[in-house]
Structure formats: C-alpha cells, structure tokens
Design a protein that fits this description.
With about 425 residues, the chain is mainly β. It contains 7 helices and 28 strands.
C-alpha cells in the first residue's frame, strides 16, 4: 500500500497505521469526504512546468518529503553527475500563496559529501520533530559500507552531528529503509543488498541488518537477535501485518530464487515462515506492494516479475498473492492486469472510494486500474493519467494540502522529474 510520508500533525497516526495496518486506513492523505460523482471524476494533472521549472536530468531518486514546519510535501531530487558522484536538489513548497511553486534550497555541505561517493539516500524523521532527516549509504575504498545521518535544520538544509555514529557495514549493503519495527514510534533502520559479502568475499549469513532506534539518539544492531539468516538476492521489502496480530511482518522479494515471508512473534523477533505460508514460486520479483483487495481484513500482495521469452508464463508479468487468513498465501492470477513487461506497482485509493486502485509502470508507460471490488479492476489510464513517457519510479505525497495523494515521477530517457496533482474537478 502506498502510504505517503506524513507531515507533522499526523506523523504518529500514520506510523500507527503502518504498524497495526488497520485495513484500508490510507494514511493522513485520504481523509476528505468524496461523493460518488467526485470519485468518478478523479484524474491527475501535470503541473510540472508551472511549479517545478528546470529540474535536473539523470535523476536516480525523486522523493516527496516533509522538510519544514508546514503540512505540504517538499521535494528532493538526487541526480547522477558522474560514475560515483551524486547531487541533491532540495525544493521547498511555496504553498498556496506562491501557487505551490517550488524554490531551490542550497545544500553545499550535503552536495560536497554526495560528490565523494554515495550509494543511496533514504529519508525518515529520526528525532520525531515532524521534519525528515537523511541517511546516506557510502562505500569506502576498503569496500566496506558506512551509514551517515544528516539532520534537517527545519528549513531543508542538512548537516551532520558528530555524536551520531554507525558501525561499518559488510560489503554489498546498498539500500536503507526506515520503519518502526518495535512499535515504540521511533523509526528503526533496515539495511539490505542483493549480494552482501563477508570480509573473505563469501555470502554473509545475514543479508539484511536491523538497527533499532534507542529513542535517545542512537541505533543498535539487533540483527542476530531478531532476524533469521537469509540467502542472497534481496531486491525489495514489503512490510505490513500479514497474520493479523497487530505487529509488522516482512515479505522479502528476491531478484533470483524464492521470495520469503518473515513473521513477527509479537515482540519484534522474526521467524522464516516461507515453507508453510507461501506457495512454491521461484521468480525474478521486481517489485511488490500490499492492500486488502477482497476486503476480508487480511492484507494481500501484488507482485511484478521478470519473464523469459521461452517460459510458459511469458505474458504473466504480475499476479496476486491472496491472504487466505493468518498470513497464508495462495497465487491468484487476474485477467484484468496488463500482459506487457512491468517494473513497478503502487497500490492506493486514488479516487477515494475505499477500494484499492493500481498504478503499474509498464514498458509502454504508466497505467492506472481502478478497483471495482471482488478482485476486479478497470483500465482507466486514458481518462485519469496525463500522457506520459515511460516512468521509472514514483513517490506519493500531498502537495496542495487537499488531503489527496499527488505523484512525483522519474520520467523518460533523460530521467527528469514530473509532478502530477490529483483533481476531482
């Protein structure tokens, strides 16, 4: 489920939604009352050239984030300047008075660090002040990875605190993800990579590492206490309550091999329940998202996968995993889904009718499928989405303060940014 990063007033509530996964609680950006007629009129409008002039090219990350005291989403665009050099453009939302036009905020210290070699940038509110910080994953000449936290001064300018330190990470960790895993309303940190190695170059037994936030400004590695060993090949994590016990579980998508399901024992310790709770499927999973598609109170999954031309399933680029209860899943194929290569899936209630919709990023461009209930979907791309080039990634948040989800995308061969707002007019 696509849950936006939330501004100050609803931060705690959205964290609670993520943890307890109250079915169809769509986060703080879905609270307005919408009539059936308005729901049918919902569509997205491209406002890029008016509010986001001259974005950079070769963007590798485009994120809607919250950087200052207001409730409107801001923007960070991370672009590549060379093989090992990144650059961050930070834009603050001007609000209604400025017709939501974004202004560039200079970040010389951050960009000097990004130019020195950074693998990945992640975003989260570490100190619970309602404004998001950055974590940078860096690679040293020795091959080891480091993590650095950069704090937000409240105006979108980032800086380091000397007292914040992370232990060195094994080689191969190239992704970081914030999530409150232990229910204390402090964001913890997951690190993953497709091929994490030990010092002697062998696959590490723990291909994911979990650092818990101690609520005092530090993080402690609790991996071996809380996680089982995992094989290499992790491509994506989908974190939600799959067994209905009120605590977050983890679906792990693999680029090669079988996807896995880790179930929380209720106290933050995870057991690998793949064998008895997932069907035997060996795919190249590209992306996954979750929602309660059949409205039975269990969170289901939608996967997009890569297919070889000579396989019997060559036109099956996405399928559901239906939760039949307590986190047990079965494969469910839908004739409504596209039969062309697909790289990403995002689940949201775009028209706010309380039924999940799908946005799929296909080889021909983005497609939106509105939910009709009972696992049925209708392709409404032509009516609801602007004409677009192929899109690589999407990020969601509320740009205009109307409590609906807007979309920031990485678009086209030049990998530039486009901004779409949701409209019910």
């Amino acid at each position: 489920m696509t849950i936006p990063n939330c501004p100050n007033p609803c931060l705690s509530r959205v964290l609670l939604c993520v943890l307890l996964v109250i079915s169809f609680s769509w986060g703080c950006a879905q609270e307005r009352v919408i009539s059936k007629e308005q729901s049918l009129r919902q569509h997205y409008k491209d406002i890029s050239r008016w509010v986001l002039p001259n974005p950079p090219a070769q963007i590798v990350q485009a994120e809607l984030v919250w950087l200052n005291a207001d409730s409107l989403a801001d923007i960070i665009l991370v672009s590549r300047n060379g093989k090992d050099s990144l650059h961050a453009d930070v834009y603050l939302n001007g609000g209604k008075a400025e017709k939501y036009k974004f202004s560039l905020k200079e970040n010389p210290a951050l960009n000097q660090r990004l130019a020195e070699g950074v693998l990945y940038v992640s975003f989260g509110d570490i100190d619970r002040d309602g404004r998001q910080e950055l974590i940078l994953l860096t690679r040293e000449n020795s091959g080891e990875n480091n993590a650095e936290i950069w704090f937000n001064n409240g105006q979108g300018v980032f800086y380091q605190k000397k007292e914040y330190y992370f232990p060195k990470l094994p080689r191969g960790f190239d992704r970081a993800q914030f999530v409150d895993i232990d229910g204390d309303f402090d964001l913890d940190l997951w690190f993953t990579g497709e091929n994490v190695l030990t010092e002697d170059g062998k696959p590490a037994p723990y291909q994911a590492r979990l650092f818990l936030n101690d609520s005092k400004g530090g993080f402690k590695d609790q991996t071996e206490l809380l996680l089982p060993p995992l094989p290499p090949g992790i491509s994506f994590l989908s974190i939600a309550d799959y067994d209905q016990d009120g605590t977050p579980d983890i679906f792990i998508a693999y680029a090669q091999g079988r996807d896995r399901l880790l179930i929380n024992n209720g106290l933050g310790r995870f057991a690998d329940r793949t064998e008895d709770m997932l069907p035997l499927l060996v795919d190249h999973t590209l992306h996954v998202d979750w929602a309660d598609f059949d409205m039975d109170g269990d969170n289901d999954l939608l996967l997009v996968v890569m297919r070889d031309k000579d396989t019997d399933q060559k036109n099956e680029y996405s399928y559901f995993l239906e939760n039949t209860g307590q986190g047990h899943f079965v494969k469910k194929v839908s004739e409504d889904l596209p039969t062309i290569p697909t790289r990403r899936v995002y689940l949201l209630d775009s028209n706010q009718n309380k039924i999940p919709d799908l946005i799929l990023l296909t080889s021909k461009g983005p497609e939106i499928y509105t939910g009709k209930g009972n696992w049925r979907f209708k392709n409404e791309t032509a009516r609801r989405l602007p004409v677009s080039e192929v899109i690589r990634e999407m990020s969601f948040g509320d740009i205009t303060g109307d409590n609906s989800l807007d979309i920031l995308s990485i678009v086209g061969k030049n990998k530039t940014a486009k901004l779409w707002i949701s409209s019910f007019k």
